[in-house]
Amino acid sequence: MKKLLMVVAMMIGAISAHAQFEPGTFSIQPKIGSTASWLSNMPKLATGTVEIDNFPTVGAIIGAEAEYQIARKFSLAAGVSYAQQGSGWEDYSSSIDDDKFELKDAKIQIDYLNLPVVANIYLFKGFAVKAGVQFGFLLNAKEKGTMKVVNGKYSATVDLEDNSDDFKDSCSKLDISIPMGISYQVPTVPIVIDMRYNLGVSKVNKESVSGHKDLRNNVVQLTVGYKFAL
């Protein structure tokens, strides 16, 4: 039993030492997580005399990041990730006599291949603040959600994705944003929890949307990664 405890202690010690990533070392970190995003200046969705408020939409993010530890408290990292971004509207329903209208899970989903480059400053062991620049390359842009209309005895349910044009061509192919955030590496294992806010500085759309010409991405992302030396 004592031998087993010694082996476990040595393994934990080795992992902890390995997780420190001394100056001059490279590491790579596969990561996965979620995004909450919205578009600044996004117009409300007008339905008759009713305007439906905007609402952040939730998506997924998956990718990897390579990091070079320049000094004990400073490193540079570059990554690549697939991220679901966009903006949504609040669920809405109304009913007048036999006429009903319902809007559910309505959103714009814009998918990007993102290439972030960030500088990390380690304030204390395992905890870093970060900032940099990110270049996003447009992959897809779609409307999603369902709309249900009941008019007396007749009803219809519309899938917004099936009944809308792909507006990818009206979106800019390149998105530039400023990522800012924090990360924390668990002391005993090289697991990193990373939270960032990506502030869009370039326009998402080429053309005006209801008079709004400067839609920009706003993204909060939370990821969990496993960091190991190369």
Helical fraction equals: under 10%
Anisotropy-based shape? elongated
Total beta strands: 14
Rg from Cα: 23 Å
- Quickly count the helices: 1
Low-pLDDT regions: 7-18
Tell me the strand percentage band: over 45%
What is the string of helix and strand elements?
HEEEEEEEEEEEEEE
Give the quaternary arrangement of the chains.
single chain
Output the strand order for the largest sheet: 1-5-6-8-9-11-12-13
Main sheet specs: 8 strands, antiparallel, barrel
Return the average pLDDT rounded to an integer: 81
| Straight-line N-to-C gap | 34 Å
Structural class: mainly beta
Protein described:
By secondary structure, this protein is mainly β. It is 7% helix and 66% strand. Strands 1-5-6-8-9-11-12-13 form an eight-stranded antiparallel β-barrel. A two-stranded antiparallel sheet has the order 2-3. The longest helix has 17 residues.
Name the descriptors.
single chain, about 230 residues, about 5% helix, mainly beta, elongated, eight-stranded antiparallel β-barrel
Question: What topology does this entry show?
Answer:
Elements: H1 2-18, E1 26-40, E2 45-47, E3 50-52, E4 54-55, E5 57-71, E6 74-89, E7 92-96, E8 99-124, E9 127-151, E10 154-159, E11 174-185, E12 191-200, E13 216-226, E14 228-229
Antiparallel strand pairs: 1-5, 1-13, 1-14, 2-3, 4-6, 5-6, 6-8, 7-8, 8-9, 9-10, 9-11, 11-12, 12-13
